[in-house]
Amino acid sequence: MHIKHDAHIHTPFCPHGSADTMNDYAEAALRAGLHEITFTEHAPLPDGFVDPVPHQDSSMKAADLSRYFEACQKMKQEYAGHLIIRTGLEVDYIDGWENETKRFLDQAGPSLDDAILSVHFLRTDSGYVCMDYHEDTFAELIKVCGSLEEVYQLYYKTVLASASADLGKWKPDRLGHITLVRKFQKQFPRSFDDSPWIQAVIDTAAEKELALDVNTAGLYKPLCEEHYPPEEALKHALAKGVRLVYGSDAHKSSQVGASRAAVDAFFTEQSPFHL
Ligand SMILES: [Zn+2]
Ligand SMILES: [Zn+2]
Fold it and tell me: What is residue 125's predicted lDDT score, i.e. its pLDDT?
């Protein structure tokens, strides 16, 4: 196994995750033979943005941010010499909230070693929708957008906008799960090809020197059964010299390092930016 770093891990600060402690995640990483982990909790949503999911639990609370940073710091000290621990965040890119996001990053950036920029929320005529929340919400989204193809277009356009957005000096340098729109693909099969969109995202990542989150969570989502992004896209990314960074997207400690064998072939010595 070449992958030694799981760079997408959630924590008990996530209100929709598990109560597993940061120590549980670190111990699981050591058991899995990893050398390094990054905690990437969902950053607080911008001030004034209303979380559209029913329990408004998409991200950690702004009031918890400093406690989160302190907890990461404490973990680094506790595991020094055994496991490299990085302090990170998974930051949402929300169309229309770039200024607020930039302001947040200006403040939080100095505390970060690593971060991911992800799209979960789509801006539609009926307001913002959390795309990956539930298959029923996804069905609603199809109605609102007009067709499945239009949902895909909106998603990839938003990911492209995230790659190009000016979010300041501390903008995350890695795009999260760039094919998350496929999460419910078994229930909503495509009658069109979305690979040109995926390639466009990868080409923009190459141009902007952004890395890609190679996220295996989709493999254990029953309606997806595929990692984000899929194999063809990973080949394209390597050909373009885009740096790949593995992430389990663990929301419980048993998922740390999950399914990394499935993508390990993309992390050989030949990879241009092997971690
Ligand atoms: Zn989450
Ligand atoms: Zn995510």
Answer: 96
